[in-house]
Design brief:
The complex is a heterodimer. Chain A is built from no helices and eleven strands. Chain A has strands at 5-7, 10-13, 19-24, 31-37, 43-50, 53-57, 65-68, 75-79, 88-95, 103-104, 108-112. In chain A, the strands form two sheets. In chain A, strands 2, 4, 5, 6, 9, 10 and 11 form a seven-stranded mixed β-sheet that branches. In chain A, strands 1-3-8-7 form a four-stranded antiparallel β-sheet, with no helix packed on it. Chain A is globular and about 35 Å long. The mean pLDDT of chain A is 93. By secondary structure, chain B is an all-beta fold. Chain B is 0% helix and 54% strand. In chain B, strands 2, 5, 6, 10, 11 and 12 form a six-stranded mixed β-sheet that branches. Chain B has a four-stranded antiparallel β-sheet with strand order 3-9-8-7, with no helix packed on it. In chain B, a hairpin with a 5-residue loop joins strand 10 and strand 11. Chain B is globular and about 40 Å long. The termini of chain B are far apart. Classes of the chains: A mainly beta, B mainly beta. At the A-B interface, strand 4, strand 5, strand 9 and strand 10 of A face strand 5, strand 6, strand 10 and strand 11 of B.
Amino acid sequence: EPEVTQTPSHQVTQMGQEVILRCVPISNHLYFYWYRQILGQKVEFLVSFYNNEISEKSEIFDDQFSVERPDGSNFTLKIRSTKLEDSAMYFCASSRQESDTQYFGPGTRLTVL
Amino acid sequence: AQTVTQSQPEMSVQEAETVTLSCTYDTSESNYYLFWYKQPPSRQMILVIRQEAYKQQNATENRFSVNFQKAAKSFSLKISDSQLGDTAMYFCAFMNTNAGKSTFGDGTTLTVKP
Protein backbone atom coordinates (compact mmCIF):
# COMPACT_ATOMS: atom_id res chain seq x y z
CA GLU A 1 0.00 0.00 0.00
CA PRO A 2 1.47 3.38 -0.97
CA GLU A 3 2.37 5.67 1.90
CA VAL A 4 3.73 9.11 2.62
CA THR A 5 7.37 9.12 3.69
CA GLN A 6 9.31 11.79 5.54
CA THR A 7 13.00 12.38 6.16
CA PRO A 8 14.73 12.74 8.49
CA SER A 9 12.84 11.09 11.31
CA HIS A 10 14.61 13.32 13.82
CA GLN A 11 16.46 16.59 13.21
CA VAL A 12 18.42 18.43 15.84
CA THR A 13 19.52 21.97 15.05
CA GLN A 14 20.84 25.08 16.70
CA MET A 15 18.66 28.12 17.10
CA GLY A 16 19.00 30.42 14.09
CA GLN A 17 19.93 27.65 11.67
CA GLU A 18 17.95 26.77 8.56
CA VAL A 19 16.31 23.37 8.30
CA ILE A 20 14.63 21.59 5.43
CA LEU A 21 12.15 18.85 6.14
CA ARG A 22 11.43 16.48 3.30
CA CYS A 23 8.36 14.56 2.32
CA VAL A 24 7.49 12.22 -0.52
CA PRO A 25 3.71 12.22 -0.93
CA ILE A 26 1.73 9.34 -2.40
CA SER A 27 2.47 9.37 -6.12
CA ASN A 28 -1.00 10.06 -7.58
CA HIS A 29 -1.91 12.65 -4.97
CA LEU A 30 -2.24 16.30 -5.98
CA TYR A 31 -2.74 18.12 -2.66
CA PHE A 32 -0.04 18.40 -0.06
CA TYR A 33 -0.05 19.66 3.51
CA TRP A 34 2.19 20.37 6.45
CA TYR A 35 0.98 20.17 10.04
CA ARG A 36 2.78 20.74 13.31
CA GLN A 37 2.34 19.15 16.71
CA ILE A 38 4.13 20.63 19.69
CA LEU A 39 4.72 17.91 22.28
CA GLY A 40 1.56 17.23 24.26
CA GLN A 41 -0.58 19.55 22.16
CA LYS A 42 -2.98 19.25 19.27
CA VAL A 43 -2.07 18.94 15.63
CA GLU A 44 -2.10 22.34 13.92
CA PHE A 45 -2.44 23.13 10.23
CA LEU A 46 0.45 25.03 8.68
CA VAL A 47 -0.03 25.13 4.92
CA SER A 48 -1.68 23.46 1.95
CA PHE A 49 -0.15 23.29 -1.52
CA TYR A 50 -1.63 22.53 -4.92
CA ASN A 51 -0.50 23.04 -8.48
CA ASN A 52 2.84 24.44 -7.34
CA GLU A 53 1.42 27.14 -5.16
CA ILE A 54 0.17 27.66 -1.64
CA SER A 55 -3.59 27.20 -1.37
CA GLU A 56 -3.97 28.22 2.25
CA LYS A 57 -1.73 28.97 5.19
CA SER A 58 -2.27 29.51 8.88
CA GLU A 59 -1.05 32.36 11.04
CA ILE A 60 1.75 30.08 12.24
CA PHE A 61 3.16 29.96 8.70
CA ASP A 62 5.00 33.26 8.76
CA ASP A 63 7.86 34.54 6.61
CA GLN A 64 10.28 32.12 8.26
CA PHE A 65 8.49 29.22 6.60
CA SER A 66 8.40 28.24 2.95
CA VAL A 67 7.33 25.21 0.97
CA GLU A 68 8.48 23.88 -2.33
CA ARG A 69 7.95 21.00 -4.67
CA PRO A 70 11.41 20.96 -6.28
CA ASP A 71 10.72 17.94 -8.48
CA GLY A 72 7.94 15.52 -9.28
CA SER A 73 8.16 13.62 -6.04
CA ASN A 74 9.47 15.70 -3.12
CA PHE A 75 7.62 18.27 -1.06
CA THR A 76 9.73 20.29 1.35
CA LEU A 77 9.19 22.59 4.31
CA LYS A 78 11.96 25.08 5.01
CA ILE A 79 12.37 27.03 8.21
CA ARG A 80 14.84 29.83 7.56
CA SER A 81 15.98 30.74 11.05
CA THR A 82 14.77 28.28 13.64
CA LYS A 83 13.53 29.34 17.05
CA LEU A 84 13.22 27.29 20.22
CA GLU A 85 9.45 27.30 19.84
CA ASP A 86 9.74 25.61 16.44
CA SER A 87 10.59 22.38 18.28
CA ALA A 88 7.75 20.05 17.36
CA MET A 89 6.71 17.08 15.31
CA TYR A 90 6.09 18.07 11.70
CA PHE A 91 3.71 15.96 9.67
CA CYS A 92 3.38 15.94 5.93
CA ALA A 93 0.09 14.75 4.43
CA SER A 94 -1.27 14.27 0.94
CA SER A 95 -4.62 13.64 -0.72
CA ARG A 96 -5.87 12.93 -4.22
CA GLN A 97 -8.45 15.65 -4.15
CA GLU A 98 -8.91 18.71 -1.99
CA SER A 99 -11.76 17.16 -0.03
CA ASP A 100 -10.36 13.67 0.07
CA THR A 101 -8.89 11.81 3.01
CA GLN A 102 -5.45 13.03 3.96
CA TYR A 103 -2.80 10.43 4.55
CA PHE A 104 -0.10 11.38 6.99
CA GLY A 105 3.58 10.58 6.96
CA PRO A 106 5.38 9.30 10.05
CA GLY A 107 6.54 12.78 10.99
CA THR A 108 9.85 14.52 11.55
CA ARG A 109 10.71 15.42 15.10
CA LEU A 110 12.50 18.78 15.06
CA THR A 111 14.48 19.76 18.13
CA VAL A 112 15.87 23.29 18.28
CA LEU A 113 18.59 23.84 20.88
CA ALA B 1 -13.89 29.08 11.91
CA GLN B 2 -14.44 25.49 12.83
CA THR B 3 -13.67 24.16 16.28
CA VAL B 4 -13.35 20.60 17.47
CA THR B 5 -13.72 19.68 21.14
CA GLN B 6 -12.70 16.47 22.81
CA SER B 7 -13.81 16.76 26.40
CA GLN B 8 -12.06 13.65 27.72
CA PRO B 9 -8.30 14.20 28.06
CA GLU B 10 -7.76 10.65 29.32
CA MET B 11 -9.72 7.43 29.37
CA SER B 12 -9.02 3.85 30.28
CA VAL B 13 -10.73 0.56 29.49
CA GLN B 14 -10.19 -3.07 30.33
CA GLU B 15 -9.05 -5.32 27.54
CA ALA B 16 -11.97 -6.84 25.59
CA GLU B 17 -14.42 -4.20 26.81
CA THR B 18 -16.00 -1.36 24.87
CA VAL B 19 -15.13 2.31 25.17
CA THR B 20 -16.58 5.44 23.61
CA LEU B 21 -14.59 8.60 22.93
CA SER B 22 -16.49 11.85 22.57
CA CYS B 23 -16.09 14.62 20.03
CA THR B 24 -18.17 17.68 19.29
CA TYR B 25 -17.57 20.29 16.65
CA ASP B 26 -18.88 23.63 15.60
CA THR B 27 -19.41 24.68 12.00
CA SER B 28 -21.83 26.58 9.81
CA GLU B 29 -21.06 24.34 6.85
CA SER B 30 -23.49 21.65 5.72
CA ASN B 31 -21.02 19.49 3.82
CA TYR B 32 -17.90 18.29 5.53
CA TYR B 33 -15.94 15.25 6.62
CA LEU B 34 -15.08 13.98 10.06
CA PHE B 35 -12.21 11.73 10.97
CA TRP B 36 -10.75 9.83 13.88
CA TYR B 37 -6.99 9.41 13.87
CA LYS B 38 -4.94 7.21 16.17
CA GLN B 39 -1.51 8.33 17.35
CA PRO B 40 0.43 5.56 19.14
CA PRO B 41 3.62 6.27 21.10
CA SER B 42 5.54 6.25 17.80
CA ARG B 43 3.58 9.48 17.11
CA GLN B 44 2.55 8.43 13.62
CA MET B 45 -0.95 9.61 12.63
CA ILE B 46 -3.06 6.66 11.53
CA LEU B 47 -6.50 7.08 10.02
CA VAL B 48 -9.05 5.05 11.95
CA ILE B 49 -12.35 6.00 10.37
CA ARG B 50 -13.99 8.64 8.19
CA GLN B 51 -17.56 9.94 8.00
CA GLU B 52 -19.12 12.07 5.29
CA ALA B 53 -21.64 14.54 6.70
CA TYR B 54 -24.15 13.88 3.93
CA LYS B 55 -24.33 10.19 4.84
CA GLN B 56 -26.84 9.27 7.52
CA GLN B 57 -25.36 5.84 8.01
CA ASN B 58 -22.67 5.65 10.66
CA ALA B 59 -19.26 4.52 9.42
CA THR B 60 -17.78 1.29 10.71
CA GLU B 61 -14.34 -0.27 10.34
CA ASN B 62 -14.08 -3.64 12.02
CA ARG B 63 -14.05 -2.97 15.78
CA PHE B 64 -14.35 0.79 15.29
CA SER B 65 -17.64 2.56 14.71
CA VAL B 66 -18.94 6.08 15.05
CA ASN B 67 -22.12 7.64 16.31
CA PHE B 68 -22.62 10.65 14.08
CA GLN B 69 -25.32 13.06 15.21
CA LYS B 70 -25.31 15.90 12.69
CA ALA B 71 -27.92 18.05 14.38
CA ALA B 72 -26.10 17.81 17.68
CA LYS B 73 -22.71 18.19 15.95
CA SER B 74 -21.45 15.15 17.74
CA PHE B 75 -19.11 12.46 16.43
CA SER B 76 -18.16 9.81 18.96
CA LEU B 77 -15.91 6.81 18.38
CA LYS B 78 -16.77 3.41 19.80
CA ILE B 79 -14.06 0.81 20.12
CA SER B 80 -15.38 -2.69 20.72
CA ASP B 81 -13.37 -5.61 22.10
CA SER B 82 -10.53 -3.26 23.09
CA GLN B 83 -7.03 -4.57 22.54
CA LEU B 84 -3.74 -3.59 24.16
CA GLY B 85 -2.62 -2.25 20.79
CA ASP B 86 -5.44 0.28 20.88
CA THR B 87 -3.54 2.20 23.56
CA ALA B 88 -2.85 5.56 21.91
CA MET B 89 -3.88 9.18 21.63
CA TYR B 90 -7.03 9.57 19.55
CA PHE B 91 -7.75 12.76 17.62
CA CYS B 92 -11.03 13.84 16.15
CA ALA B 93 -10.70 16.03 13.05
CA PHE B 94 -12.98 18.12 10.85
CA MET B 95 -12.51 19.02 7.21
CA ASN B 96 -14.61 21.22 4.93
CA THR B 97 -15.44 19.75 1.54
CA ASN B 98 -14.15 22.87 -0.17
CA ALA B 99 -10.99 23.40 1.86
CA GLY B 100 -8.40 20.75 2.42
CA LYS B 101 -7.10 21.72 5.81
CA SER B 102 -8.14 19.64 8.80
CA THR B 103 -8.93 21.04 12.23
CA PHE B 104 -8.04 18.74 15.11
CA GLY B 105 -9.30 18.37 18.64
CA ASP B 106 -6.99 18.29 21.64
CA GLY B 107 -6.97 14.50 21.68
CA THR B 108 -7.96 11.78 24.14
CA THR B 109 -5.33 9.49 25.60
CA LEU B 110 -6.75 5.98 25.76
CA THR B 111 -5.13 3.29 27.87
CA VAL B 112 -6.23 -0.30 27.47
CA LYS B 113 -5.49 -2.27 30.64
CA PRO B 114 -4.81 -6.01 30.64
